[in-house]
Design goal:
By secondary structure, the protein is mainly alpha-helical. Helices cover about 60% and strands about 0% of the residues.
Length: about 375
């Protein structure tokens, strides 16, 4: 009873979030990608012409809603606090590392859980890698790892991300001609919910994350570091909500209850032929071991870098809305990382002919080396 008393709201919030993440596909987002913070930030980088992959360019309103929802909620509950100054440059690079690892797997931790809730068992490989990375991060935390303390800042600093989020939504609504949008109907960038619906979805999720502290990295970190199940219970509820919704609305069968604007959603349990995913078998039908190995290591990078940053991309967007300028710098790092991953061929390609990015291995190795280096160097006794 004590556990339920403490955790009931994050369990409810996680469940609602999982339901919305699954339904977002029925409302227009790509299959098994109802919400993917990494992919959506990559798409935003494309809309801003920071990367020029024509298939993934759109100003995703969900991301803007996450920041604005957390901003409004933190104001309403008197938790909006402008602060910053905790190793912003290191956080920027860590955010780029998170994006490099995520775009090897083609998904952030949130999409990894949604893919699992849609029957994609390759998500288990990424989950294993993420847990391994988080465990390394916990190792460093136990030995005094820190990026330093944030300090109080003027209100103007904390307003930057919410103002930009609002401005970008206005530009999306008026379809500002300087932005780039994917035009090929079958490409992921062209598959999206109505902008107002996307904003509303983001506002709800921003509220949930701000009030419950939902975090797809923090749940595992707290479990390993302090045997605290609070955040983890929200993750479990999230997967249950997504899985239940996919079955209830018929996303696992032909002629489902809702379908989507792009046709039937036919999820299935397995590793092969999953939507917007690496092929985990080669042309001859044999196991494609490089995809498994680098999916695991890519998400190990995600788990380690995100643990060192203090949270997953979604959590950092919410923190940026709350006035945390370090999290705001992290958001900029995610966008830059998404652009670089596409431009420098770190990102994987999906489908039967998909493969690891040409330089994905180098990006993951470099990211892991950077994270390990700062893990040993950034200790509290040295920061004092």
């Amino acid at each position: 009873m004590d556990f339920l008393g403490k955790s009931k709201w994050i369990i409810l919030g996680g469940f609602v979030f999982g339901v919305l993440g699954a339904l977002a596909v029925n409302w227009g987002n790509p299959n098994n990608m109802g919400i993917c913070v990494a992919c959506f930030l990559r798409d935003i980088a494309g809309a801003l012409k920071l990367q020029t992959a024509a298939a993934v360019q759109y100003l995703r309103p969900e991301i803007l809603g996450f920041a604005l929802g957390a901003f409004g909620t933190s104001l309403a509950f008197r938790e909006w606090r402008p602060r910053g100054g905790s190793s912003p440059i290191i956080r920027f690079i860590l955010a780029m590392c998170v994006m490099a690892g995520a775009l090897v797997f083609l998904g952030c931790p949130v999409r990894m859980l949604l893919r699992l809730g849609g029957g994609d068992l390759s998500a288990l490989v990424a989950l294993g890698g993420m847990i391994a990375g988080i465990l390394v991060g916990v190792f460093f935390l136990k030995r005094g790892f820190t990026l330093g303390r944030a300090t109080k800042l003027p209100a103007a600093a904390g307003l930057i991300i919410p103002i930009f989020a609002l401005a970008f939504f206005v530009l999306l609504i008026v379809k500002w001609g300087a932005l780039a949008f994917t035009t090929t109907a079958t490409a992921p960038g062209a598959q999206h919910v109505n902008p107002w619906l996307g904003l509303g979805l983001g506002l709800v999720v921003g509220f949930i994350v701000q009030r419950t502290r939902f975090c797809s990295i923090g749940g595992w970190r707290d479990l390993f570091l302090a045997k605290d199940f609070y955040l983890f219970s929200g993750l479990a509820a999230f997967v249950i909500g997504a899985l239940a919704t996919n079955y209830i609305v018929g996303n696992f069968s032909t002629g489902g209850l809702l379908g989507s604007p792009h046709g039937d959603i036919i999820y299935h349990w397995g590793v092969t032929k999953q939507p917007i995913a690496l092929p985990y078998v080669d042309a001859a039908g044999a196991i494609a071991w490089p995809q498994y190995i680098w999916t695991f290591l890519g998400f190990s990078l995600v788990g380690l870098a995100a643990t060192q940053m203090g949270g997953c991309p979604l959590r950092n967007i919410a923190l940026a809305g709350e006035g945390d300028t370090d999290a705001g710098v992290s958001v900029l790092g995610y966008i830059a990382g998404g652009a670089i991953a596409m431009n420098l061929l770190f990102a994987s390609s999906a489908g039967a002919t998909g493969n690891l990015g040409k330089y994905a291995i180098w990006a993951v190795v470099a990211g892991l080396l950077f994270c390990l280096a700062i893990g040993f160097m950034m200790r509290e006794k040295e920061a004092a």
